[in-house]
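Schema walkthrough. Field components (list of strings):
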Amino acid sequence: MREVAVLGVAMTKFGVSDKTNLEMFAEAGLEAISKSSLNPKDIQALFFGNCLGDFEEGQLHMAPFAHAELGLPTGAPATRFESACATATVAIRHAALLVGAGIYDVVLAGGTERAAGMGTPLATRTFAMACQAHHESSAGITFPGVFAMAAHMYAHKYGIALSELKRHMAEVAVKNHYHGSLNPKAHFRKPITVDTVLNSMMVADPLQLFDCCPFSDGAAALVLAEANKARELVEKPVFIAGTGQASAGSLYLQRDLTRIKAREEASRQAFSQAGIGPQDVQVVELHDCFTIAEILALEAMGFYGFGSAYKSASSRETYLGGKLVVNPSGGLKAKGHPIGATGAAQVTEIVEQLRGECGERQVNGARVGMVDTLGGDFGTVCNIILRV
Amino acid sequence: MIMEYKLTYNQFMQGLEQEKLLGLVCNGCGAATCPPLGVCRACGGQELRVAEMSGVGTLRTFTVVRVAPEGRTPPYVVAMVELDEGPWVMGNLEGLPLDQSNMDIIGKKVKVGSRRVQTKLPVQENQRSLTFHLI
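Field assembly_structure (string):
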């Protein structure tokens, strides 16, 4: 495999947008191409992420329209990826694999989503379509509900009083909102307190509104190229050191919801390819769709032992300045979660951190960073490790 | 070799309508798979026979859904149950006041039943979901 690097990265501001999916993606895509010292005609393929364009805008088959918005050459195929919330990460991984394999030299990857535009009832319904329709969505399970069941199981399994676990979970939200307050692109830029979380409305017991990430609109995109070409084009290429992706079935097959097996396997693949371990990573953008999700992710990737990551934010170990900075962008929780764009925004943040471009939220001395994105109810996990 | 799906969704639904929780038992390793899959959930074996599950299990986790998908009326309890035969299933806990649907129910024995899928959106006539009642 050839070495692959990231060149230009870009994301729109996440939040509520009056632009269409294609307009948002055009902004991010053109900015990423321009920052790579390239023109759209130089792009050889588009790896395009979108989940719910059919419900959001009545638009399927969005990839070729995105291709046209950017003015890509007819010979550059545009393909849509869908892996629920891991959509863009999976698109980026496949882009990296095909550049690594020598099929393409320069490609664009990313995603776009208008989740906020759907409103809560339709968004809740369409997100739940990523659960198994016949045997699980039919019981009225929701995404907050999935992680709520994981939280109850976590408290029971490790013998932690639910009220104590909830305080530690709230600290995850406080941290990520604090980080988000330092990110001009974040959906929410307001710091909160533990009481903000514990006084918010109940969504799915024990998860309250501020345990949950928002439905957001936004797009993000990045250019990937063979490493030598990247060195010619940009001053600070960031290299893909390892990737991993793994799959699991319905929750009824996964059983222990505190152990996300697809993540344990995907991160193992990524660390193995990179030839490093969790101790070598300084900054992580991980899938904190709910506060408990950050705790489960830290354990599955090996940053903490099982049953011990619930204190990670309360101890401030995962804050800016801590030993492992987790979600300096604000994460899905505060930066926002336009599902088809999320993975590309996570890669954008890690690339900018490794280039030292993050201003107030810069992780000092970051040389290795990791992206973790979970799709559906633990069915897909994709990890990407990046280094300078 | 022509593969014929051993226990289809429609057959599984017909079983529920007749108050039978059907599953598959692997001729190779003996594990039960419920709801059905194309292969044994434990060993991937393809030599499977249809068998009725006891319909009794242990509640492993739950949530009270208070913000529902379009078409549903909250609040309601979603739970996961480990059947006595080993498989886990998802359904709705019924017959218990919401204020008693708390951590104390984890580990309690339940009886599994079913009901028509509860939604205002159009669904096929025969679509059912599982229900759980504390024993």
